[in-house]
Amino acid sequence: MIGGRHFEFSTLTMSPALDSTIFIDSFPAPGDVLKGKRERRSPGGKGLNCARWFSVRGHSCAATGILGASNAGLFEELMRSCGIEDMFVRVSGESRTNVMFTSPQGMFKINRPAFPDLDVSEFDEENLLRCCAKADVCVLTGSLPPAVDPGLYRRLTARLHAIGVRVVLDAAGEALVQGLEAAPDIVKPNVSECADVLGFKPGTEEEFLFALRELGKKAGLVILSSGEGGCWFYDARHPDEAVHAPSPNVSVLDTTAAGDTLLAEFCGLYFPDCVLSEESIKRTVAAGAAATEVPGAVSPDPERVDTLSRSVRPEYFRMCGRNSQPEQ
User: Fold this and answer.
1) CB 66, CB 143: distance < 8 Å
2) Please, how many CA atoms are within 13 Å of residue 46, restricted to the half-sphere of its CB?
3) Tens digits of per-residue pLDDT, 95-118?
């Protein structure tokens, strides 16, 4: 372990959430009154979802960020049951509740704002840094509450690198743009978040390859997620090749935590050797797919991940051709 630290991984979650999945008979029309058939609630937030999967895979993990003191109990219970070291700072009020509605026709989700009335004096950035620094690898994930400076991930990444901690970034908007300025070891945008950095959403093979090349100028390794289309992988140390892994065929129930499970699976396989192998790619995409088959932020069965990974067929691409941005 780097510098004799206590944990393999630490995660930072500044916008935790209770994820509520409500099952309904059909998509609504204007004026409909929906009747939920059943509801399942699970504590989460991107970093906590990663920490949960690290625990499932047997890795040691510490979790930090901010939690609303009024409803911290379910989050605390999750961390106790998973053996995750609880290093969250409690702030006044409640952590948000996000709602996913799922029906035979599909699903839609409502993400509420996190801590809209947060007083930033309630938490200390230096304390967050100390918690993040207790691990070999720190995963910085998710949106930031409105009152938090979007440069937080940039500052933490630079300072963690200075003391030998590797950094994984999964963010959006200005927090992603600024975080990339500090050159994280891994970045994992989806196609929409890619637009925050590059100004367009990749859709064609050419556009994905261009996006990977550009993001690879800002991060050591790029995982570009395209939902049901699977993932693209690009290691900037080997600039002539990119890999696309199509997602295995699954019946999607709930996409909550799918990207977080995918990212945690990859990190657990990639570190500490930092080798992008075909096996790690297959298992990573399989973990994300398996997570869509279960409700809320519940972790999938590891055996299901292993089974799905055997059906993933990665495709390899040469990074050649146009070096300019594709026309939009």
Assistant:
1) no
2) 24
3) 998 888 878 877 788 888 899 999
**Whose structure tokens read 């995918």?**
262
Which pairs with CB-CB distance under 8 Å and at least 24 residues apart come from 291-294? 291/257, 291/258, 291/260, 291/261, 291/262, 292/250, 292/252, 292/253, 292/254, 292/255, 292/258, 293/250, 293/251, 293/252, 293/253, 294/253, 294/254
Distance CA 33, CA 43 (A): 27
Q: What phi and psi, each to the nearest 5 degrees, are found at residue 181?
A: -65, -25
Judged against a pLDDT cut of 70, whether residue 178 lies above it is answered with yes
Length of the chain: 328
CB crowding 124-154: b at 16 or more within 10 Å, else e: eeeebbebbbbbbbbbbbbbbbeebebbbbb
Contact (Cβ atoms closer than 8 angstroms) between residue 112 and residue 88: no
With CA atoms as reference, report the closest residue to 118 among 47, 15, 208.
Answer: 15
Alpha carbons 20 and 52: distance in angstroms, whole number: 17
Is 22:101 a contact under the CB 8 Å cutoff? yes
Question: The tokens of 206 are what?
Answer: 């050419």
- Tell me the C-alpha distance between 16 and 126, whole Å: 20
Say how far apart CA 250 and CA 80 lie, in whole Å.
31
Q: Where are the beta strands (DSSP E) in 255-328?
A: 315-318
Tell me: the pLDDT tens digits for 263-300?
999 999 999 999 999 999 999 999 999 999 998 788 99
> Residue 295 carries which side chain, given as an amino acid letter?
P
Which of 21, 19, 69 lies closest to 49, judged by CA?
19
